[in-house]
Amino acid sequence: MLSALFQSSTIPVLQEVVSFSQARHAVLAGNIANIDTPGYQARDLSVADFQARLKKAIDQRDQPPAGSPGEAGFGAKPLMAEVAKSSRSILRHDMGNVDMETQVTEMVKNEMQHNMALTILTDQFHQLQTAIRGTLT
Questions:
Q1: pLDDT tens, 114-129?
Q2: Of 7, 52, 69, 70, which residue is most buried, by most CB within 10 angstroms?
């Protein structure tokens, strides 16, 4: 029963957004750490692929289950290991393509997404606590 309650809420979706943004932050930090490494090519996790897979998982969640409860996996975890090369940075004389401004901008956008998901997730848990207690605090 509790599993069904959580699966029908936004909690699993927000959990995946937080996990993705944490993994992406680590990749972007690695790009900045290697900014002076000759020939280093910037890496990034594909936000568009993550969003597409997340949408597909949400659509599948909203449809009636075909098997037994708990069989359908959320499906966004394999994306965490998928690293795509960035093509938006300039190419430097040492054949590296890491641009500090681009990386910092992406890190800030990623941090904002992470913080937003955590804030909403925290609010969801507070609402559940209130419902469980049966009081308004």
A1: 999 999 999 998 988 8
A2: 7
Give the Cα separation of 46 and 129 in Å (integer).
Answer: 35
Residue keyed to tokens 């969640």: 61
pTM for this structure?
A: 0.68
For the segment 27-40, what is each residue's pLDDT rounded down to a tens digit? 999 999 998 888 88
Q: Which two tokens stand for residue 13?
A: 């979706």
Answer whether 35's CB lies under 8 Å from 100's CB. yes
Nearest to 106 by CA among 41, 34, 47: 47
Domain ranges of the chain: 2-133
Q: How many CB atoms lie within 10 A of CB 126?
A: 11
Q: What is the DSSP string of 112-135?
A: HHHHHHHHHHHHHHHHHHHHHHT-
